[in-house]
Amino acid sequence: MEHLAGRVVSLSGWRRALVAFLAGAVAVLTQAPYDLFAAGFLAFPVLVWLLDGATADVGAGVFRRLKPAFTVGWWFGFGYFLVGLWWIGGAVLVEADSFAWALPFAVVGIPLILSFFYAFAAVLARLLWSSGLGRIAALAFAFGLTEWLRGFLFTGFPWNPIGLAAMPFPLLMQSVVLTGVFGMSALAVFVFAMPALLSSKRHRNIGLAAALVLVAAHVGYGIWRINAPEPEATSTVQVRIVQPNIDLSVKWDGSVRDEIFAGLLKATTAAAVDGAARPDLIVWPETSVPFLFSDRPDALSALGDALQDGQLLYAGAVRMQGGSATQEGLYYNSVVAINDRGEIVDAVDKVHLVPFGEYIPFADWMSRIGLNQLVAGPMTFSAGDSRHALAVKDGVTAAQFICYEIIFPELVDAGARNSNLIVNVTNDAWFGDTPGPYQHFRQAQIRAVETGLPVLRSANKGISGVIDAKGRIIDALALNVLGTVDVAVPVTAPASHRTFGLSSHINAVLIILAFAVIAIGMRASAGGRVN
Prior knowledge:
globular; 43% helix; 6-stranded mixed sheet; 2 domains
């Protein structure tokens, strides 16, 4: 191990950049759908050794001293985000004639930008660097803080946070209610980087012991919590999730809209299988309705005829507000609630929109340089002003999160308070049969554990399903299939399921700060020396 560490530390130039890139690419294997968490024990020790060698000449200015660490972190991030997010390019190829020009931005440009977060993490860690265990703590602190920043800076994009690598299946997801995802990211990096201590005897035993204690606590808490008694259910909601498997290339084609809508109606009214009861709630995916209900009152009449007494439909639809003969109205990406009389009784608009996919930041300036919406679609959306839960039945309410809103822990935590269920409608068909839909579904599982709420997920081409309050998949449909999921979902009183909130955020901050204190203390005890 000493020989390997020495060779990595001594790398320079393009070889150092290449190894950093490959280490980041290997780290992606810890994420869904691969879930090879062991890859973290290879990627992060290599990153530690690369940062060990990220030194500058004595007497160099501050920027020259930090440049080697910045370069290592940036290349590590580029490998991680390029290999982890290449599938975003599929969205611009749905209508390649119009959007193929944007492919380099989607595939390479986004990872180039996100890589600066990990470059910042590497620089921050290097500022606290010392020998032995101190540098491992410094790296854990830096990544925990950086993953938190990635969740909200520049509208936020917390996709594939490192912490998810420690939560590949439900038993190992339970600790997130104590640590939050960002605290879990710090802990994961601390444990994953620990093999770097094997290259010397300094702090090796205490470091490995600390890692073993953390892993044992993580597993032990998961076993205890996942086997703990469930809160008493106050009622049961019979749910049908519809996965219509609509081809995006024809979704907005006027000649097939009636056919698409007829398919949705057929799935809604189909007889339940395996003796399931008649559904109380039916859920259609994001923008599944291929027209504006305001243009097609006959569609609402058809829904009134299709829905039985007491049934309720949540339909992902485009909603228009305002507009006149001389001025175009505002369009919203929405979930509308439709009752058994074919009436729209409530609606929730998407609040957190996808930059360049659903709206253009600094639209006036962007239009001057010819940069318009990058993702194929019929219109640009406006953001909703606020979020509220939709009624289901008998006092049961469901919080709505559209598409990638589900990846934001704080947004979901705040939006799901005082609700009994979470509904996530999405259209991952933009990304085809790639890792993207699996990674998105994993985030929905984590939100279920954090909030202690079942998640009902309807996706156009998958993955659709029902996730229980501990992240377990009750039933689901695979990608690219047409079908429905019928599940009886027990619900509890809102006060009985709160597992995530202020204490979890405080714990995450304390975990990250603890690693900073350890790093600072060990650097001070070493007299500021680094190896």
